[in-house]
Amino acid sequence: MSESTIDLTGLTIAVLGGTGPQGRGLARRFAQAGLNVVLGSRTTEKGEAAAKELSEAIGKSVAGADNAGASEQGDIVLVVVPWDGHGELLKSLAPQLAGKIVVDCVNPLGFDKQGAYALHVEEGSATQQAFGLLPESRVVGAFHNVSAVLLEDPEVTSIETDVLVLGDDREATDTVQALASAIPGVRGVYGGRVRNAHQVEALTANLISANRRYKAHAGIRITDV
Amino acid sequence: MSESTIDLTGLTIAVLGGTGPQGRGLARRFAQAGLNVVLGSRTTEKGEAAAKELSEAIGKSVAGADNAGASEQGDIVLVVVPWDGHGELLKSLAPQLAGKIVVDCVNPLGFDKQGAYALHVEEGSATQQAFGLLPESRVVGAFHNVSAVLLEDPEVTSIETDVLVLGDDREATDTVQALASAIPGVRGVYGGRVRNAHQVEALTANLISANRRYKAHAGIRITDV
């Protein structure tokens, strides 16, 4: 199986933390690509409210739930929650996430007067933390460097960026590459094993630095691939 | 001053570790761009031999010296040595490197059966180590992700990649961006402060993973910049 032959039709994509800009933006793009999407949030009420708002904005039905409900409904579950609380949430959702592809999209970053910087993560990276906490899941890292501003902008029809997909499970990374490539302009590119996730998460700090310097919404492309 | 108005004419670029593939490749491209280049190596003899070989290969005069001599001659000094011994070398060259722009290009990587991975660096990154050891120099990080194979290939006339340039000294990063942009196809892009160098160095492990998967010489482009 390779990425190009993977059929995502009928799959449900759950987005935990789907009420933040990055989660909302990804949910928007997946729904527009014709996938079933469920937005998860801390409470059912918040998840449903965000889903209703997104559904109305894009004219496509998006479901809402709490994070546990969204985890149960999703075939592929994206984790787009704040770094603070990331480990605790995943630990609590381990039963619902068992057997599923879990895509960690979290960038552990700090901010000060000099801009963004990578936080020290005991396990090495958010993806490695998820990998350790969810031994029954198929953990992949992806969607770290995609601008939330572009994802949420209805006038942006194509997003010129590659998504580096990290994981030790080839079928899972192939599937997530296909999911990334479902967004017009985006290409899912294999970026290495889970142990090499840290630098891709942290690279977001460099893109934020470039954004400030160039007044841009920087993304990355991998050349010669 | 901005990158585009910087005139590199007449400057001498020293390449420490200029006998390895990455150093040789960068020296080749800078010489071809019309810059004065001096290759540094552990001994004068080795530096001169490598310079002679490169001069003959490209039909342009390149000088050779030991690393201390090259450091003295260079206006901009690139550090392209193995990670093992990096700190010791820089410490010993601190007097020669005082007042100069020192461009650290080193990627602290390990390799095993599963491929490349980022090594833990006490100071955070090679660039941060250089920054700490060379308080009298203007330390910049750059050229981490450029394929040595492409740099050394005489049939490759344009290298499609961006070079992320990291540093806290604006004039120095502007100068190094201009230096990167002197290589056809390459663009120097500001990538943040010294504290954000680690992930750019480590990203080379991801590109090596992509190289294996796709049989490529992967590089990066920063989009929307």
TrEMBL record, chains A, B:
<dbReference type="GO" id="GO:0008823">
    <property type="term" value="F:cupric reductase (NADH) activity"/>
</dbReference>
<feature type="domain" description="Pyrroline-5-carboxylate reductase catalytic N-terminal">
    <location>
        <begin position="12"/>
        <end position="108"/>
    </location>
</feature>
<protein>
    <recommendedName>
        <fullName>Pyrroline-5-carboxylate reductase catalytic N-terminal domain-containing protein</fullName>
    </recommendedName>
</protein>
<dbReference type="InterPro" id="IPR028939">
    <property type="entry name" value="P5C_Rdtase_cat_N"/>
</dbReference>
<dbReference type="Pfam" id="PF03807">
    <property type="entry name" value="F420_oxidored"/>
</dbReference>
<dbReference type="GO" id="GO:0016651">
    <property type="term" value="F:oxidoreductase activity, acting on NAD(P)H"/>
</dbReference>
<dbReference type="GO" id="GO:0006740">
    <property type="term" value="P:NADPH regeneration"/>
</dbReference>
<dbReference type="InterPro" id="IPR036291">
    <property type="entry name" value="NAD(P)-bd_dom_sf"/>
</dbReference>
<dbReference type="InterPro" id="IPR010185">
    <property type="entry name" value="NpdG"/>
</dbReference>
<dbReference type="GO" id="GO:0050661">
    <property type="term" value="F:NADP binding"/>
</dbReference>
<dbReference type="GO" id="GO:0015677">
    <property type="term" value="P:copper ion import"/>
</dbReference>
<dbReference type="InterPro" id="IPR051267">
    <property type="entry name" value="STEAP_metalloreductase"/>
</dbReference>
<keyword id="KW-0560">Oxidoreductase</keyword>
<dbReference type="GO" id="GO:0070967">
    <property type="term" value="F:coenzyme F420 binding"/>
</dbReference>
<dbReference type="GO" id="GO:0052851">
    <property type="term" value="F:ferric-chelate reductase (NADPH) activity"/>
</dbReference>
<dbReference type="GO" id="GO:0005886">
    <property type="term" value="C:plasma membrane"/>
</dbReference>
